[in-house]
Design goal:
Elements (H helix, E strand, L loop, with lengths): L1 H22 L3 H12 L1 H5 L3 E11 L5 E11 L6 E5 L3 E6 L2 E6 L2 E2 L5 H13 L18 E6 L2 E8 L15 E6 L5 E6 L12 E12 L2 E12 L5 E15 L9 H10 L1
Antiparallel strand pairs: 1-2, 1-13, 2-3, 3-4, 4-5, 5-6, 7-8, 8-9, 9-10, 10-11, 11-12, 12-13
Length: 268
């Protein structure tokens, strides 16, 4: 009799657990609804989107710094990406790989194609949310529900493929918080990776402060990045990123390296 009762209790527990799991949406379902809510098809149809980016950073010791650069994005696939930095430095990536140049002189070191892609991934990823969640190498896994600041939210664990970012410190499992009512991103964060605790004891929490509608697509216009510790408590360090957005005429040559352009000209 005891064994029967135990078996019945175990069966009921497994059934309840399975039912609870069934109630949780698939991460891809949540992502699809996030993209749709932001105007995913409209974003893909923008073509070439230019982002004039200005960053203002404040450290815990009061040190302040800033930098500016320009990003150019092919919204149809997020494979074609270009970053222009001061000093005539260009870092870019296309389906053929990555490249970098200074004053139009190609950097031909063998590690550059890989490092260029990882560098521009790291820069672009938080600025193109939620669309960048669809980039190759980004994974959405476990889902749970809770409340945050009075709102019902989904909390999703988010690992990355090894080598997505140029900084290995960021290659850890992130946490994405999504509002259940409108599928907006409430926060995206990662705690300090234990393996790099001595080198970089600070993680980052991203919050979208402002967005702008462009031809039916909602695009990030201002992002706040705040330092957090291993207990996800915020420190005094922060970075505010402001973006001026502009749709440009289609020009695929923006993403081709000087060598690729030269080869095209020779073919013509």
């Amino acid at each position: 009799m005891f064994n029967r009762i135990l078996s019945l209790l175990l069966s009921l527990t497994l059934t309840a657990t399975a039912a609870a799991a069934d109630e949780m949406p698939d991460p891809q379902e949540i992502l699809d609804k996030m993209i749709a809510a932001a105007g995913g098809e409209a974003f893909a149809n923008l073509g070439i989107l230019e982002l004039e980016v200005t960053e203002e950073e404040s450290l815990n010791d009061g040190t302040q710094s800033g930098k500016s650069y320009t990003l150019t994005v092919d919204t149809s696939n997020l494979d074609n990406l270009r970053m222009e930095l001061p000093g005539e430095v260009v870092v870019a990536a296309n389906k053929g790989g990555g490249w970098s140049s200074t004053a139009n002189v190609l950097d031909d070191r063998p590690q550059v194609p890989k490092m260029a892609r990882l560098t521009i991934n790291q820069t672009v990823f938080p600025l193109l949310l939620p669309y960048s969640l669809q980039m190759e190498g980004v994974w959405l896994e476990e889902v749970r529900e809770t409340k945050q600041d009075g709102r019902d939210v989904w909390v999703i664990t988010m690992p990355f493929s090894k080598g997505f970012f140029v900084s290995p410190v960021m290659e850890t499992t992130w946490i994405l918080v999504v509002a259940k009512d409108d599928y907006s991103i409430q926060s995206l964060e990662f705690a300090p990776a234990p393996a790099f605790a001595d080198v970089s004891p600070v993680g980052v929490r991203y919050r979208i402060l402002k967005q702008k509608a462009i031809d039916g697509a909602t695009v990030v216009e201002q992002v706040l990045a705040v330092g957090i510790n291993s207990q996800y408590q915020e420190s005094g360090a922060n970075r505010v990123t402001r973006i001026v957005l502009k749709v440009r005429p289609w020009d695929p040559t923006l993403f081709l390296s000087p060598a690729q352009l030269e080869a095209l000209e020779e073919d013509d």
